[in-house]
């Protein structure tokens, strides 16, 4: 998932440089959503791992 976030970020940067504002904004928004989903899943998996070790 982090890979796709980075891909969309690169697409947003390239589109922004080339002057495609709509595509750049949409790609940046998708990259941001994917990055925060990645962070949420990371925190959930870390908490689940800690809970599994304690029992």
How would you sum up this structure, described in words?
This protein is an all-alpha fold and 55 residues long. The chain has one domain (2-54). The protein is built from 2 helices and no strands. The two termini are 30 Å apart. The model has no long low-confidence stretch (mean pLDDT 91).
How are the SSEs placed, and which strands pair?
Blueprint: H1 2-18, H2 21-54
Helix pairs in contact: 1-2
Binned, the helix content reads over 70%
From the helix content, strand content and strand pairing, which structural class follows?
A: mainly alpha
Rg calculated over all Cα atoms: 16 Å
Strand coverage percent? under 5%
Q: Which parts are unreliable, with pLDDT below 50 for 5 consecutive residues or more? A: none
Helix and strand pattern: HH
- How many helices does DSSP assign? 2
Number of domains: 1
- Kindly state the mean pLDDT as a whole number? 91
Distance between the first and last residues' Cα:
30 Å
C-alpha geometry: rod-shaped
The description of the largest β-sheet is: none
Count of distinct strands: 0
